[in-house]
Every structure is written in structure tokens, then in C-alpha cells.
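Need the bound structure for phenylalanine, inputs here:
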Amino acid sequence: MSATHRENFGSSFTFIMAMAGSAIGLGNIWRFPYMVGEHGGGAFIIAYIICGVLIAIPCFVCEALIGRRARQGVVGAFRKIAPGSGWRWIGGMCVLTSFVIVCFYSVVGGWSLDFLLRSLAGKLAGGNPEAATGVFSGMASSPVESVAMMAAFMVITALIVLGGVKKGIEKFTKLTMPMLFVLMILIMVFSCLLPGAGEGVKYLVKPDFSKLDGAGWAAALGQAFFSMSLGMGTVLIYSSFMKKEDSILGSGLWTAGSDTMFALISGFAIMPAVFSAGIEPTAGPPLVYETLPYIFAEMGVDAPVLGYAITLAFFLAILTAALTSSISMFEVCVEHAVEQYRFKRWQAVLAFLAPGLALGVLCALSFGPLKDVKLFDKTIFDLFDYASSNILMTLGALVFVLFVGWRMKKADVRDEITNGGTLRLGTSVFNVLYFLIRWIIPPAIIVIFVSNLLG
Ligand code: PHE
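Answer from helper R.:
Posting the output first, comments after.
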């Protein structure tokens, strides 16, 4: 994506598909269920939906309208709209955020790759549910295996970004996304029918608000940002290719809607099986990867061939969903180096890949040999995970909102949201949104952010 050749996305459908490709990923399938488990089940889901509707969707609108207005990458966008101001430094923060995410995301992407290879070898749908929950710890504690898989995932991401074969991958996701969706629903139904699954369903639908503290709200907000890829430039960059006639708010609603639906389905696919298998819901990052082998082993008990096929299709789908997300993060880093520092593309890719691999190793080993190395009571992996969404993305989104609410001209904001008055949004919708953007969202983000730091 270069600044000089900004071709438009062919249609709004393509734009929404690309956005959904970035949004739907491990954040929904892996991160959401484990967050729900750590923060008290149903109450967290409610907090997540409130944060999504009242904060994340307007944040999406802000980030997208900056991108479409400027038709530039992150730094270029701020240079163009607010020349000579300090706002452009946010570009550096976006790069840092994307880079931090790439490091730990590749570990989980690597787990998916590992599980795909295991299922290819027929070792996952084996029909032995008791042993299945141990598969994850076996893999994660093997330094060679987890490091190799992390590295493979990161290198594949880098090669896709380098080779500009994103288009090919996006075509592929048109096939795998619907497949993932269907499979998740299937798994959800299966999981809810497992013995003892009722407890898990109850855990999700019966909110226990006493468990929802400041940290829970901060996690819900951070999860909403993480899952919708907000606050770190992806939405801005993608929107710089968006057509003038597309509705920014409409795209935000579609992205948020499909993303949240995926997350909820994942929650209901995983949590009942967690209870059925007797896994601790608070197990943290490993939760989903401890649970999936159990689900597939149960499937394989009665229908080995079907179980095998579903397992294989599932991990292929999850791996491509993870890749479309990781390439969108890597792209933010590379685009920045190419646009701002005139790096050649391969130089930019290498400049991020080398340190990314080094830090990725530390994140991967956090589940094995380095599991007792802790900073602020968190392993290296947890620290990266936490810092990206609860701190960096939250601050990034705050800056975008402040910029739109307080730095841009109101007429320009209205122009982008209503497409020059051609969208029949109704003035009241714009007014409510603008009021939220100026007066409600910034203080809300600050209160949640600060209460989390103090708590
Ligand atoms: N939203 C992606 C997911 O849910 C993760 C992501 C974050 C992608 C930030 C791009 C930018 O997996």
C-alpha cells in the first residue's frame, strides 16, 4: 500500500470483508473466551457489549474517518490534516503497538499451526478425551516446538507482506471465513451437548456482577479494541482505500456486528466444554488450546472420520483467520518504514522481523522454561498481551477520538460521516455520535484506564 497509489477498494463489500478479515482472528476465538473466564463469565460479556457499542464503534468511526479524509498512512494522515503539529507522533505509537502484538500473536498463531500439523497426522481427534487436555502443555513446554512454530508463523506473515500476495490470501479467506463460521456453530452445538456442559452455559448467561471490577472493565474495553483492531492504525490505513460513497458508520456496525457474533459463538463453543472437561475457566491464555483437543477427541469417539475432517478444517480456518490479522498488523509497521523513512520493502520487513523473532522467542518460552520469569506479576507473554490492548490500543484509540472531536473541524467530521450530506443518517444520529466523541468517550476511556492502573 503506497501513499501515492491509493486505489479504492472495489466495493463496500470488499472493504467490509477486508476489515472483517483483520478483525476476526485469534482475538475472537482464543482471547475472548479466556478473558471471559478470567473476569467472571456473563458479567464480562455484558461489559464487553456495552464497551463495544458505546465506545468501540464510535472509535472505529473516528479512526476510519481520519484515514479516508487524508488518504494516507498513519503519520501522513496527521501531517496532512494537522500540518506541523505533534499529532503525527501517534504514528510511532501505532507501530509500537502493532509490533508488540505481532510478537505474542505469533505464539498463538504458532499453536494453531502446531495443532493443524497434529491434526493432519491424526493425533488430535484421537478419541481419548482424558488425555486430550494435556496435549497443550506437552507442546507449550517443549521449547523447540513452540519456538519453531512461532517463528514459522511470523516468517509466513512477513513473506506474505513482502510478496504482496495479500490479495491471494484475502481470496482464500472468502472461502475459509464462512467455513470457520459454520464450523464454530457446529462446535458450539456439540460442545453444549457434552456431559456437564450446562454449568458452562449457566456461567455465560448468569452474570455475576460482583466479579466485575475495574480490571474487568478495562479488560472488556481492551478486548473490544483488540478484537476490532482499533487504536493502532489498521482501521486508518484500510479506510484510506475506502470509497467516498461508502458509509463509515455502516462499515463500523458491520465490522463490530460480525466480530462480536464470532466472539460470542466462540465463547459458547469453548466454555461449556471447559466445564465438561473440568478445566479451570481462569486458566488464562492456554484455556482454548487446552479445551479444543478435548472437544475434538470427544467428536472422534463416535465418528472418527468426521472428527478428523472437522478438526483439520477447523485448524486450517483458524490459521488463515490468524494470518489475515497478523498481516494487517505487520503491514502497519512496514508501511510506516517505507512511507516515512524511505526503506525498501524488504528492508522494512527485515527490520521488524529480526527483533520480532527475538521477542517472539521470549513470549513463546513464557509457557515453558521462562514461565517463572515475571515482571509486574506477569509472564513476558502476559505482559505483551496486556500492554498492547489495555494500555497501547486504549491510548491509541483515545488519541484518535480526541483528534476527531477536538482538533478536526466539525464540518469536516460531518462531511465524512454523512458523505457530504448524501447519506440519510439524520442529523440526530450525527449529533449523538459527535456528542459521544467529544464529551463521553474520552472521559470514559480515561476513567476506565486510570481505575485499572490504580486498582
Ligand atoms: N483483531 C484481531 C483479532 O481479533 C487482532 C488484531 C489486532 C489485528 C490489531 C490487527 C490489529 O485477532
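Comments: The longest strand covers residues 374-375. DSSP finds 19 helices and two strands in the chain.
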